[in-house]
């Protein structure tokens, strides 16, 4: 069985004591590919180092909306230059975050639009962070013609109505730990209706830890728990769910 964790943060300080062991546990659990996300000035270099060190770890690089206010002249050129690296498979995570009050909305919007424009120019898929900003995220994706490149709605948390709009724009929906939570009705309902060819799984480790480890540090090995929950929701066996989501990820990120 092959699993693909399409969104992880293995360079996070939570892994400083056992990073190699956590990666080994992921491999033992059947996770044969992972995408690590570099989202600001600190994490982009550490993400690139991981991608260059491990054959099976790929990179996405972009500027997170929480850090939008810290983006300086030249950072967009830096991201653009890294996109020519053979291990960089997406621009992200980018988007809007109205939960953490760190970057003004207008700054977030500007940085988001610029990165969509860059992705269109480079013909790269984008990885979208959306927290409490569903309407504006979809509107900006439409206005900036993100349908020309598509991408992934990371850790999708919206309604089925929002999901349909994202699917119409050519995006895949990625689900993580919350679909294992007993009372997470909406993510489960959305996953159940998501077309199989648009479904991805992830951990967002070290965050959003699935049941039964909720409250503890998440890690890429736990994507198997997400796969098990998704297979149950879809009414198919784990092997089939794993193979379909693995193939979807290869295609979406252009990995040969």
UniProtKB/TrEMBL annotation:
The keyword Membrane does not apply. It holds the Pfam family TatD_DNase. It comes from the Bacteria. Signal peptide: none annotated. A divalent metal cation 1 binds at residues 7, 9, 93, 204. A divalent metal cation 2 binds at residues 129, 154. This is Hydrolase TatD.
């Amino acid at each position: 069985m092959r699993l693909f964790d399409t969104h992880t943060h293995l360079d996070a300080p939570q892994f400083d004591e056992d990073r190699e062991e956590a990666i080994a546990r992921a491999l033992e659990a059947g996770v044969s590919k992972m995408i690590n996300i570099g989202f600001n000035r600190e994490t982009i270099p550490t993400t690139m180092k991981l991608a260059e060190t491990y054959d099976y770890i790929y990179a996405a690089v972009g500027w997170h909306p929480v850090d939008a206010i810290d983006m300086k002249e030249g950072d967009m050129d830096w991201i653009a230059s890294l996109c020519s690296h053979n291990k960089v498979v997406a621009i992200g995570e980018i988007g809007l975050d109205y939960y953490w009050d760190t970057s003004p909305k207008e700054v977030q919007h500007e940085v988001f639009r610029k990165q969509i424009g860059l992705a269109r120019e480079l013909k790269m898929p984008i990885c979208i962070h959306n927290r409490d900003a569903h309407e504006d995220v979809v509107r900006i994706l439409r206005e900036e013609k993100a349908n020309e490149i598509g991408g992934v709605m990371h850790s999708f948390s919206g309604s089925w109505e929002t999901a349909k709009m994202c699917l119409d724009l050519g995006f895949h929906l990625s689900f993580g730990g919350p679909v294992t939570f007993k009372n997470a009705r909406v993510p489960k309902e959305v996953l159940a209706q998501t077309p199989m060819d648009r479904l991805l799984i992830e951990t967002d480790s070290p965050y959003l830890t699935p049941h039964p480890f909720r409250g503890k540090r998440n890690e890429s090995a736990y994507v198997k728990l997400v796969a098990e929950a998704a297979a149950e929701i879809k009414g198919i066996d784990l092997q089939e769910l794993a193979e379909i989501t693995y193939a979807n990820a290869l295609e979406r990120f252009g990995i040969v």
